[in-house]
Known about the structure:
This protein is mainly α. It has helices at 3-28, 33-79, 104-140, 148-171, 175-194. The chain folds into two domains: 3-79; 115-194. It is built from five helices and no strands.
Amino acid sequence: MSPTDYIFATLAALGGLLGLALLYSVWRKPGRPVMLVVGWALVLSSLLVWFMVNMDRGVAQIASILMLVVAGLITWPGLLGTNGMHAPIRIRTIENTPPQAASIVQKATAVGSGIWTFLLAGPVAGVISFYAGGALLRVTVPETGNPANAAVGAFLFSLVAWALLSTLLLMEQRKLRRTLYALGACAVALAAAFI
Length: 195
C-alpha cells in the first residue's frame, strides 16, 4: 500500500467510526431517520474505500476494526461495573388492577407453549435447514471431480437457513400457524432431499 492508500484507509476508518457513533445515537434516541441514513452511508462508504485501497483484504480489515471497536465499547462499561450500553427505556403506564391467580392448567399450558416454541425454533428448524442443505448438495455436486466445494456450500447454506428459519418462526405470533409453517417446510425439505 502506498502512503496515499494509508491516508485513504485512515480517513475511511474514521468515517466508519463516525458512522457507528451516529448509529448508536439513533439507537439510543430513535426517530431520526436522517442520522440513520448518514450513519449507514458512512459505514458502507468506509467499506467501499477500504475495498478500493486493499481489495477484499481491506474489507476484512475494516470490518474487523469496526467489530473490535464495537466489542470494546460494549465490554468496557461492563468491566467498569456499569451498564452504559443498555437500550432506551420506554415508560409504560401500568394499570392498578390486582393480579389474578393463574390456574394450574394455564401455567402448564404456558410452560408447554414455551417448550414447543423452543423445539420449533431449535431442533425442528435445524432439521429443516440440514435437509434443505442436503437437497442443495444433491443439485450442486459435480459429476466428476471433487465434491468438497459443493459440500461446504451446502453446509454453510444450512447454517444460514437454520438461523433464518429460527428467526422467522419466532416472528410468527400465532402458535398454530408457526407449527403449520414448520411442518410444511419440514415436509418440503424432506421431499427435496430424498426424492
